[in-house]
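Example record used in the benchmark description.
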Amino acid sequence: MIFLKLGGSLITDKNRPETARSEVIDRLASEIAAGMRADPTMRLLVGHGSGSFGHPAARRYGTHQGAAAREDWIGFAEVWRAANRLNRLVVDALSRAGLPAMSFPPSASAVTAAGELTDLSCEPVERALGAGLLPIVAGDVAFDRLRGSTIVSTERVFAYLAPRLRPTRLLFAGVDAGVFADFPANTRLYPVVTEAELARPSITGSAATDVTGGMADKVRHAMDLVHLLPGLEVRIFSGEEPGMVTRALAGEPVGTLVRPD
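Model output (C-alpha cells):
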C-alpha cells in the first residue's frame, strides 16, 4: 500500500489564484499510470493539496480559524467549491491517463475538534481499493465541533487513514528536491532528516499562502506516522523533474528520507 501526495505548489501556481499547472498535472497522471502498469498489484491512494485554489479563499474567509456568522459559512462553501474545482481537474487527468480514479472528498464525512481530525469514513476508500479503483483525497473544508469550521490538510487525512490502510510507503511530491537544511537558500539537501534536524528553524513553512502549514508541518506529520507504523518509508521529493513520480512508486531512493533519530 502506497500513499502519494501531489503538492499544491506542484500542481498549481500558488502565486496566481485558481491557476492550475495543467501540463504538470497531465504529466504526473501519466507517470502514476506508468508506475501502476509496471506493478499491476500496486495499491495506491493519491492525495493532493489545494494550492492556489483552496488556500487564498480559506485565508480570505478565515475558514481554518472557525465559522459562526452567515458570511463565514458562505465563505466555507466558497472554499469547498474552489478546492473541488482543482480536485476535478486532477481526477479527470488521471482518468485520461487510463486510471479508474474516483474522488473521496474529506468534507463529506470529516469532523474535527479544535482542528484535530476525529472522524472520517474509511470504509468507502477501503472498498474502492478492493475493487481495483484509484481513490483520490485532497485538502478540504471540514465541520469542527468547537470552532464551526476548519481546513483539513491531505497530510492529516493520510494520518487518519494510515492505521487502517497500513501503507508501507508514503511519498510527497512537491516542487523542492526534498528537505533543505538552509531554507530559503535551498543549497544543502538532507538525504535523511531526523527529529534532531526537524527542531532546526531552517525547516519552515511555505513561501506562498498556505493555511495548513508548510514543510515543517509536513515533516512532523510524516515523523508521527513513522512512529505509528514502524517500517514505514517516507520520502519527500520533487515532482518537477519528469519521471520522478514513476521512480518513487517503483521504490527508488529519491529525495529526502524521513526517519526517527
